[in-house]
C-alpha cells in the first residue's frame, strides 16, 4: 500500500483483526458499531490481509479527507480519534482470532452413534483444501458460505450446499453441532446444551468425540470469497 489507508469495519467482524495483531503500522479507533483502522507504510503480507477484510476502504489524504477506491472526489474525513495501536487495543478488548475458546473436557455429555438423519451444514477441513477450492469455485458456490480458521490450519465452513472437500461434516441444531451420524447422551434438547456451554444467540459450539469442544462466536466467521480464503492460507502458512 502506498500512503495511508482507512478501513471501516463492522463491529461483528472484529474476529478478523486477530490476523493483524502482530503487524505494525495499524492503529484503531473504536466508534461503537464500527471500528476504524488506519494503515500506514508498506507490508505486503499485512496488506493482503487488509484487502480481505469486509467493510469500507478509503485512501487517506494528508488533510484527513477520505477517498473511496476508483474515485477522485473526497467524501468525509477520518475520525479524529482517539486512536490506539491495534495490538494494544486488542490486548484489553478481544480474544484471539480464529476459533474462539479452547478445547475443554466436558464429562457430562457423551457422544454416541445415532440421532435423526439431517443434512450437514458444517465442514471441518484443511486451509490448503479450502484455498484451492475457493480459487476455482464459481461465485454462486461461495456466496452461501462463511468460514472461520484456527492457527492449526483448520477451517470450519458453514452453509449449504457445502463444498465437496475431504473433511469432517457436522450437523447443527440451535447452535450445537456434532459430527454427522452422532448425537449426545443424555438426550437433552439442543437449547439446554447450548445454555450449559454459555453460548449466546448466533454463536456455535462444536462438540468433538474426545469430549472436547470449540466455541465459535458469530463474529469469528467471515464471508467466503477468494480473497478471504487466500489471505487465510497465507496467514496459516506464515505461522
Automatic annotation (TrEMBL):
Tell me where in this chain the MoxR-vWA-beta-propeller ternary system domain is found.
7-231
The record's section on InterPro entries has: bpX2
- The domain of life is Bacteria
Pfam families, sorted: bpX2 (PF19918)
Q: What is this protein called?
A: MoxR-vWA-beta-propeller ternary system domain-containing protein
Taxonomy of origin reads: Bacteria, Pseudomonadati, Planctomycetota, Planctomycetia, Kolteriales
Amino acid at each position: 500500500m502506498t500512503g495511508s489507508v482507512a478501513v471501516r469495519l463492522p463491529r461483528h467482524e472484529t474476529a478478523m483483526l486477530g490476523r493483524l495483531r502482530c503487524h505494525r503500522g495499524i492503529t484503531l479507533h473504536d466508534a461503537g458499531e464500527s471500528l476504524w483502522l488506519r494503515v500506514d507504510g508498506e507490508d505486503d503480507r499485512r496488506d493482503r490481509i487488509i484487502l480481505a477484510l469486509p467493510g469500507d476502504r478509503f485512501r487517506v489524504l494528508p488533510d484527513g479527507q477520505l477517498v473511496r477506491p476508483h474515485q477522485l472526489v473526497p467524501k468525509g474525513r477520518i475520525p479524529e480519534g482517539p486512536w490506539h495501536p491495534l495490538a494494544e487495543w486488542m490486548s484489553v478488548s478481544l480474544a484471539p482470532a480464529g476459533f474462539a475458546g479452547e478445547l475443554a473436557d466436558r464429562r457430562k455429555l457423551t457422544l454416541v452413534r445415532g440421532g435423526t438423519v439431517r443434512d450437514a451444514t458444517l465442514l471441518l477441513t484443511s486451509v490448503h483444501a479450502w484455498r484451492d477450492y475457493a480459487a476455482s469455485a464459481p461465485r454462486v458456490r461461495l456466496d452461501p458460505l462463511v468460514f472461520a480458521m484456527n492457527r492449526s490450519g483448520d477451517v470450519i465452513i458453514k452453509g449449504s450446499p457445502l463444498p465437496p472437500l475431504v473433511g469432517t461434516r457436522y450437523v447443527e441444531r440451535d447452535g450445537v453441532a456434532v459430527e454427522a451420524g452422532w448425537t449426545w447422551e443424555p438426550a437433552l434438547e439442543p437449547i439446554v446444551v447450548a445454555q450449559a456451554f454459555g453460548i449466546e444467540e448466533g454463536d456455535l459450539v462444536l462438540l468433538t468425540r474426545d469430549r472436547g469442544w470449540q466455541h465459535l462466536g458469530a463474529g469469528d466467521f467471515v464471508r467466503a470469497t477468494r480473497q478471504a480464503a487466500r489471505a487465510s492460507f497465507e496467514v496459516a502458512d506464515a505461522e
